[in-house]
Amino acid sequence: MKRFALMISLLLSILCMTQAKDRIVERPPFLAQSSSSIEIDKIVMSDTVTTVYIKAFYRPKYWIKIATGSVLKDNNGNLYPVRKGIGITLDKEFWMPESGEAEFQLTFPPIPQNVTCLDFSEGDFEGAYKIWGIQLDKKTFSKFKLPKDVTVTKADHKMTLPEPVVKYAKAILKGRILDYQKGMPNKGSLYFQDVIRDEAQEGKIRIQDDGTFYHEMNVFMITPCMIRFPFGAVSYLLAPGETTSVVINLRENARKQSHLRQAEKPYGKEIYYGGYLAGVQQELADHPMSFSFTEGNSYEEYQQQIKKLNGKTAEEYKAQILARLPEFRKQITQSKGSPAYKEIINTDLELSAALKIIETERNLKLAHIMTNGLEGEKANKYYAETKIDIPQGYYESLQDFTYILSPKACYNSRYPILFDIIRRIGIDDKILKSLGNHTAAGYLIQNLKAQMIGVSMRDLNPLNDKQKAELATMPAAYNDMALAMNNDLLKQIEINKKKTGFTVNETGEVSNEDLFPSIISKFRGHTLLVDFWATWCGPCRSANKQILPMKKELKDKDIIYLYITGETSPLGTWRNMIPDIHGEHFRVTDEQWSYLREKFSIRGVPTYFVIDKEGNITYKQTGFPGVDTMKEQLMKALEK
């Protein structure tokens, strides 16, 4: 009996020794991730295997996938390839449950005890999951100290917003990413809404090996911007002749993005601002406020909120929006921010409400579409043909929105969107009338006038004498900016004259009934992507840019890209735009365009057809479906 007890004791000791060798890290901190869809809940490291416990967060009934090429890389550069999945099959679609959350494990070779940090990567393909800087020594990592050369800007609680300076000058952004390491993404995208061109602008940011980045551009007014990196985003203000600096704290950025670690102690601030209005920018980042009128916190909540609008009149809808304002204004008043902070937030509130009111027709139509489950052509037809009764004087309530009438409204990132929506739905006169005689409206009106000129140049029309005369009556900054834009445009037009890769086609004298068969007949035997578009259509132009990589990837495939537009696309603009859109181009008459719209039930642009080698339409879509879907449909047609 004693011998048996001794053996049991020995076995338990061995078992305890074995277990003691296991190194367990619960919810390890990390520096950055390419997606918040998967997160590491635990890592168990033994002398035979490393098991990574994963929690997934994704839309219910959609799938995720883990590649067989997934690896862990330690801080010494050693690689540990994935062995297998437990609860998930590698390279196979894993469908998310109704909860939108799931768990599985990935096993890897054993990791040495001296390893303190890991990176996880599926590979270098687009959309690959990556997690950088997974910390195995949580205690050391938690001892965060801000570098001495990083300034912590304190808010001035008496700060008021200065009157914005209107001049055409260079604005500079200086940036730095703390804990940046080689192998992390070294590119980011800069976005801002160009008030004068009435469109979103995008630029590229390159991160240096030491984590610093730099960007400069000419602006004529306060310009809210955003930089988006694969691991996060930062918003900031630029101003003519000013420098803005941002320091991004990856540790805190990752903690705030995490599903599992948000309750942990912060690692300082997520962003540290310096330079132009640093105190106010810091307040906005540290104490964000948002106001939801119909949005909700998820797509499902958004659908529920929109459906509640079904059957409401325009006046009932507006009353619902306006009824929320006192509650939101009280929240702003009771906040501890500076007067400058509160003014920007109040502007955001009014712009949010104004945009909802301006979008009355759109939102009431969407309510009907969602409530009745309309999809595809039925939804497009309802949206295009249904008219919502907007009473006379409906927009006069906007004259009470004093913050958006102020020139200081340009400090808010939503300000440019107001111009975009006003112009898109064609209610300039109603909006301007609702402004009454408010003296501050002059700034808004000047920008609207400048925008008319800027949009013309955006559409590749050089300045004419009438526009030059108009600019001469405006502040010098507008004239300086317009002349710079015009000079760039004239250079671009000359460059376009030398470009190849596009062909202008004539339709010939054919009946309306024979028009489309005649257009595609010369390309019979090839797979076609037909794009019904317009030069003035922002989504059309955006889609043309997005499919450029796809066209390059499929350049050896038997695909012809065919573009059809109508006379609403000005001839000069069309001629100057198509050199950058490689393919076969047709510009039809208004009568022909109307016939094509009616025959094929084209409810808007862009509308796409995929046509196989026999001339059959295999796919039709209004609105850009995305590069992946477009490529998939083209490949299907090629295989027929």
TrEMBL record:
Signal sequence, renumbered to the chain: 1-20
UniProt domain Thioredoxin: residue ranges: 463-640
Transmembrane annotation, as ranges: none
GO cellular component: cell envelope
One GO MF term: oxidoreductase activity
Entry-linked SUPFAM superfamilies: Thioredoxin-like (SSF52833)
GO biological process, one term: cytochrome complex assembly
Location (main, coarse): other
Protein name: TlpA family protein disulfide reductase
